[in-house]
Specification:
The chain has 253 residues and is an alpha+beta fold. 26% of the residues lie in helices and 32% in strands. A seven-stranded antiparallel sheet has the order 1-11-7-15-5-4-2.
Length: 253
Amino acid sequence: MHTSSTSHLRQGTRVRAGTPTDQLVAMQDWGDVEQSLDSNGSAVLPGLLSATQCAQLAALYPCDEIYRARIVMARHGFGRGEYKYFAYPLPPLLDELRYTLYPRLAPIANRWNRQLGIDVQYPDDLDAFLSRCHQAGQTRPTPLMLEYGEGDYNCLHQDLYGDHVFPLQVAILLSEPDKDFSGGEFVMTEHASAGQRADVVSLRQGDAVVFTVNQRPTTGKRGGMRKVAMRHGVSRIRSGHRHTVGLIFHDSR
């Protein structure tokens, strides 16, 4: 259901500065975002999407023709609920967000790799990075939409998909807490030699969370850099339905 490994690439075109999507992203306090990512492994982008945009995206969930795969979590031991991977081309709003967010996050990802002693640097634009993925056989799109009902949850996990992994990803809450659903908190855990920690990230409708895919650097007790492993998941839905969009920047095998 997906297109060839190169036909969807923008080949030099970019989201123009000053467009609504670019303005939404530029309005965020990226200094605070970087500080929060360094400290906690996650950061909230408040009000990234309007309630109308959230409703329009959530309404796409039943449209099977725009997806390449549907995953029922219980069949794979992932939890309960389901999600669908979009096919290329992505819905325009998600495509624009992916292209606009990537260059904001690439400098952070590159700094983290340097601090961890990882000899991988990410190009400035998403097309160049996707070309790198596709040359390695990672050609399938990874942006997805998740749907949870009462009693559903998502086990703690990491979205890796291949050898080429961009270390940050974004999830956007499309549903309104305490109206459309209750429960269903976004959860992150941190595991290091010094111990473990769990954080609940509070989100409102239209908020996005940027978070660590796999591992991030942190300062050890003696001042040197050490790595901590991060996982993410969603707590049990107590009532209603919850929809979320996930923007992963590397493609899959």
